[in-house]
Amino acid sequence: MKKPLLSLILFISFAAFLSSGCKKKSTTDTSAPTLTTQDVILDVTATSAQSGGTISSIGGAALSANGVCYSSTNHTPTIADTKTSEALIYTSYSFTSNLTGLTPGTTYYVRAYATNLYGTAYGAVVSFTTSTTISAVSGTVTTFAGDGTGGYLDGNGTGAEFSNPQGLAMDAAGNIYISDSFNNRIRKIAADGTVTTIAGNGTAGYVDSADGASAEFYAPAGLTVDGQGNIYVADYGNNVIRKITADGAVSTYAGNGTAAYVDGAAINVAAFSGPSGVALDGQGNLYVADRNNNMIRKITAAGVVSRVAGITTAGYVNTTVDVSNSVYGAFKKPVGVVLDAQGNIYVADGGNSAIRQITPAGVITTIAGGPGQSALIGDAAALCIDGAGNLFISDAAGRIIELTAARTLYYLAGASAVFGYADGSGTDAKFNAPRGIAVNTAGDIYVADQNNNRIRKVVIVVSD
């Protein structure tokens, strides 16, 4: 009798153990959604603006509401304040919200929200200030140089010919310099529109020369010019940085010609892989968007190359650079770089559809776009900056974009994924893979319209 009783007790205990184990494994997801607020505000006027968010997870239940909430008095707005309600998609997605009925000259605080059965979650707070007058910002586009034929011809303005121009830079006198990529030449457009050739004989090769006309380049990309008239060129196909002096002599400034990653002495030791963009700081240091190495590099005036940020593996990581622990963040195919007066570096991170910032202290952040908000910036191809800290971005998918110092985004001209050639205003204008971009002291923007084989001019218009 004892054995059957003992067996029964053991059986009941084992069954209870199994039941308890099953209950522990059967957990219910009671989480709220996860989301971020769009990091820039679009098209701010006196009475309206546009914001949005990205939902990365709907949490443990279907969404019941999402949008943005905003207030001019509550610095951390909630759904108890004014809010928008957007269409529900029930999965991970981005949304856009129109804010209307705003008060002119007023600072607003906005953040994205999403609600499910288990609660309401919020993104970070973003602030903006409406303008004092009801106005809209757009760009009027004209053709400055090039007849559209993919060829090679010096001449005046639209009588000249280019072949896939990529890089574009401007000096203090208003002269424009072009990396005429498929012609393997560096061209100059004087302020009066006259187009000449500075360097390159048209052959895709690698030849330095005291005579610029005898030098050879291979698909030159970004370029910049210093106060003495020296031009620095990212010679993409040769994996080197070239220098053209004011008298036309061409030399290798950095790189050994091998597609690789090597820091060290600029000449014969250091190596780049597909350098695409270059920019100078006030101390004569040259910064390079080293595209295929997924890095930002620095060449000191003394001729030493080092890494500023990024690793050879493409990625998307914001962090603080820590050299001693080999922490450098991550980029994906950076193609453009520019600096402001405070030494902040701005990067057109093409593969991540983002504009990234690297502070002098090495803090890497995203100031617009990113993998979750790729439509904001699109295919970031190049960027430039004016004296007020406003950034101008060429989106190779067909747009020219302004990102103000206040982090307001304006689509000045063109439309995303609409390719063609048309002068005009706003979305009536058309580009075909716009790349190099520069802005003069008057605020006029010049763009290397690559596949249209033209140089375009964009004048910003603020209309009531």
From TrEMBL:
The keyword Repeat applies. CDD domains: FN3 (cd00063), NHL_like_1 (cd14953). Keywords: Repeat, Signal. Residues 1-18 form the signal peptide. The keyword Repeat applies. NHL repeats lie at residues 150-192, 216-247, 272-302, 426-455. InterPro entries: 6-blade_b-propeller_TolB-like, FN3_dom, FN3_sf, NHL_repeat. PANTHER family: NHL DOMAIN-CONTAINING PROTEIN, PTHR13833. This is Fibronectin type-III domain-containing protein. It comes from Mucilaginibacter ginsenosidivorans. The lineage of its organism: Bacteria, Pseudomonadati, Bacteroidota, Sphingobacteriia, Sphingobacteriales.
